[in-house]
Structure formats: structure tokens, C-alpha cells
Specification:
single chain, C8orf32 fold, 7-stranded antiparallel β-sheet, two-stranded parallel ribbon, 6 helices
């Protein structure tokens, strides 16, 4: 019995280690959703889009937890992402409309924002909530601005991108996230606190 204190200490250490690991996993799970900040500026292209499609830019939603997506739902998401990427030809606004920063639903061609708008509309038509489909502005590694669609789920925030047929968790992309539509109001935008570098460093 003289080893009992040592054994108890070992059990306590093991239990503490397990709790710490669980805490890290829980924290990591939470990080799979973007952390947003306060209200920020609305992109000029979206502002002009809202002048034309006013009913789409004043949809208010209650703040709710991200939804669970079924297996069938994921198939719809992947199919729509791939379908739009394959049917719309990527062209600049200058090439399509003769001027810069035109956000519009594309018919045959468009730039990144147009891809996002079409995917968003198609997913809404299939039953996805507008509060979970958020136009998002990012910066590519080369510094160029880009737009993607963020899908909120209980498994994290996923990205639909015209540059990839794969629907990726936002932390698995190479982008710097700047701002996105507010989930509580389609006409408002919020900043994004891109803390992935801190998270990766902490988990090493």
C-alpha cells in the first residue's frame, strides 16, 4: 500500500492531461467558425447591387447557432459549387460589363462576386437559410482581392470558391479573411478576425 500516494498522483496527472487535451479539442472545434468583429464598410459593388435588388439587402435574421447539415445537404452544396464553377466562364467585370465592380447574377460569364451570388441564390432555393450564406471578401496570397461564399455549419465555416471545386473549411484555405455579410442583416457587413496563425502556433 506504500505506493498508493504515487498511484493516486499518477491518476490525477493522467486525468488532468485528458482534461487538458479535451479542452484543446473543444477550443479547436470552436475555432472552426470565424470570429467576427464590429460593423464595417460595405463593398461598393454590394452597395450598388443593393440599389438594384433592395429586397435582398434588408433581410434580418435572429442570431442562431450554425445549423447541422445532413449528408444530402452536403451533396447539394458540393453539386452547386461544382455546377456553377463549370457553367459560368470566369471573366472580369470590365470584359463583361465594360466597367469595374459590377455585382450581378451571371448568365454565362462573370467574376468571383457573380459566382458567389449565383451559388448563394441556388442554395437558398434549395432551403438553406440566408443567414448561413454569407458573401465574404478575402485577400489571396498574392495580395489580390477575391470574393467567396461562406457557409455556416455546426462543423465550422466552409468556403465555396470559383477557384476550386472542393468545398473547404475556411482554415484550410490560403486566404486572409477581411469581412463578410452579417448573419443578422444581409445589408450589413462585419469584420473578420483571422486568428489562424495564432491557433496553429498554439497547437504546435
Amino acid at each position: 500500500m506504500k505506493n498508493a500516494p504515487w498511484a493516486r498522483a499518477l491518476l490525477v496527472a493522467l486525468a488532468t492531461g485528458l482534461l487538458s487535451a479535451a479542452s484543446v479539442q473543444a477550443e479547436n472545434k470552436g475555432s472552426l467558425s470565424m470570429v467576427t468583429g464590429g460593423i464595417t464598410s460595405q463593398p461598393i459593388g454590394h452597395y450598388e447591387f443593393c440599389q438594384k435588388y433592395q429586397s435582398e439587402c434588408d433581410i434580418r435574421s435572429k442570431l442562431t447557432p450554425p445549423p447541422r447539415v445532413t449528408e444530402y445537404g452536403w451533396k447539394v452544396i458540393h453539386d452547386i459549387n461544382k455546377e456553377v464553377n463549370s457553367t459560368i466562364v470566369a471573366m472580369t467585370d470590365l470584359e463583361v460589363y465594360g466597367r469595374d465592380e459590377v455585382w450581378e447574377y451571371p448568365t454565362t460569364a462573370g467574376d468571383c462576386e457573380d459566382f458567389v451570388l449565383l451559388k448563394r441564390r441556388k442554395l437558398m432555393e434549395r432551403g438553406f437559410a440566408v443567414s448561413d450564406l454569407l458573401i465574404t471578401v478575402v485577400r489571396k496570397p498574392d495580395g489580390e482581392g477575391h470574393a467567396v461564399l461562406t457557409l455556416r455549419t455546426n462543423e465550422g465555416d466552409f468556403i465555396l470558391d470559383n477557384l476550386s471545386d472542393e468545398v473547404k473549411l475556411w482554415t484550410n484555405t490560403t486566404y486572409t479573411y477581411l469581412k463578410r455579410q452579417a448573419s443578422f442583416n444581409t445589408g450589413r457587413w462585419v469584420s473578420i478576425e483571422d486568428g489562424r496563425d495564432v491557433l496553429v502556433g498554439a497547437l504546435r
